[in-house]
Write a structure and sequence with these properties.
CATH topology of the largest domain: Rossmann fold
Number of domains: 2
CATH class of the largest domain: Alpha Beta
Distance between the termini: 23 Å
Structural class: alpha/beta
Strand order of the largest sheet: 3-6-9-1-10
CATH superfamily of the largest domain: P-loop containing nucleotide triphosphate hydrolases
Number of strands: 13
Radius of gyration: 20 Å
Number of helices: 12
Strand content: 15-25%
Helix content: 40-55%
CATH architecture of the largest domain: 3-Layer(aba) Sandwich
Largest sheet: 5 strands, parallel
Length: 307
Amino acid sequence: MNPEFTQKVQMAVGNIRKVVVAKEEVIRMSLLGILCHGHVLLDDYPGVGKTLLAKALAQTIKSDFKRIQFTPDLLPTDITGSSIYNPASGEFAFVPGPIFANIVLADEINRASPRTQSALLESMGEGFVTFDGKTYPLPRPFFVIATRNLAEPHGTFPLPQSQLDRFLLSIGIGYPGRDEEVEILNRGEHGQTELTPVLSTDDIKDMQEQINFVKVSRPVKEYIANIAAESRANAEIIIGVSPRGTVFLQRAAQARAAMEGRDFVTPDDVKAVAFLVLKHRIVTRSSQAGSPVNVIENILHLVPVPL
């Protein structure tokens, strides 16, 4: 793997850590999402820094950034765009919405109606917007980082499983430790720092292309397929890993290998990203079956690791 790849990753992570006090692995996995042509769902409680992390990632990459605050009255056209009448020409012209950006922050995505959620998630899956029979491609790279508040079920709309499946990763930031919280207080005395971009969209596109050349051996591919098969055969699981999830797991493992400076994937790469790629794709039969994380842990324990 080109050493410039890992250098750029370190530069980006270091830049984000200037404003975000979180585990380095959380920041690295957020960056991994955009490197995989994927999208990231930040799942956690209020006030742990979900929006700050998303904004810091956007500021680290010199790109077009838009933020959409999801509310119950938000309409699909508020995201995708709409036609506006032009008196001079006497015709309607399409005016692109905030989805037409390189990086889109969908803040509190579960506060909007299912119809509005679908408008965003369809764009994520297709890479374009269709309006009045015309297709408008979204910019490249295109990356959505969405936040979801887990603490307040009232006034929210759950994301259907088919829509959750469009996210490459589901990441939780978690509460900080004591030393981390002291650091947050120290930084709060001086106000939030504006970040200077250290990567360009061309850098991101080049890094995305390099990930395509990370080799995945037949035994590692079979290992990934066996994990998916075990999730579908497990008696405690209603919905197992989809084929899209299998593809995403391989892609994330390739990106993780590249971030570690290798041009080949190991089973450890698969294990390192498995929880984040799979936990929002698995639905267990009951709370007695344990959380999806525990179920995935059991699956990884059952599936033989290739030598």
